């Protein structure tokens, strides 16, 4: 295995570890003490702790391990290595947290502040884990199993299940907790997609130039990117021009824009946002 590939794997698993630890903390420190439920297995665990007492960490551990075993037996290789890693780390870490640092009541006296941290961390960590091609198990495993054996529309089915879990909080914990939970569920559904789009955000340049050598040289040498070029003709002047197409990240986009303006101020430049780039140097087909 090449060093670049090893570095890439190490970076991915490092980010997965940080995102999973963040998910453990947002559940254990903010959701569980306040009985917030935004859906999923942790939401079910919060409801079970309200009905039968006991720790939501333990209920979550039991449910996740059962689902993990089912997923591993039924899905086999379809249950990705990254998802196995995240599921086990999350389940064991959440269960261990209650013994390492017991929390029996909210860590602040402001439930709105707890809710903000709970939903922001949920959205960010969920988006990061999903963006790295993994899941934290739970209802995602149920979705994969249903997808394999049924024709049920998984997204809609899971949305309904999560909504039922959230609404149940009204009956078990009262209207205040129920409203917080419903608001968190709706906010998470909106923000996760936006965060994923932000994580994958790149700038797509189309540059119409009369001398592309300097610009292409800068893209290759200074930005360590590549470009596609082709010859075009102006419809009014009928002069031959070179069109340069390239994709860079946001910080590189500023450098490229400034360089083009400096070396060829009369060039025509179009810069557009792209939420996902698939190909060599970016993301692969995962």
Biggest sheet architecture: 4 strands, antiparallel
Rg measurement, Å: 24 Å
Large-scale geometry: elongated
* Poorly predicted tracts of residues: none
What separation lies between the terminal Cα atoms? 19 Å
Structural class: alpha+beta
Query: What is the tally of helical segments?
Result: 10
- Report the sheet-strand fraction: 5-15%
Instruction: Give the count of structural domains.
Output: 2
Helix content estimate:
55-70%
Q: For the largest beta sheet, what order do the strands appear in spatially?
A: 2-3-1-4
Look at the structure and give the mean pLDDT: 82
Report the strand count.
4
The succession of helices and strands, N to C, reads: HHHHHHHHEHEEHE
Characteristic key phrases:
alpha+beta, 4-stranded antiparallel sheet, elongated, 4 strands, Alpha-Beta Plaits, 65% helix, 10 helices, 10% strand, 286 residues, single chain
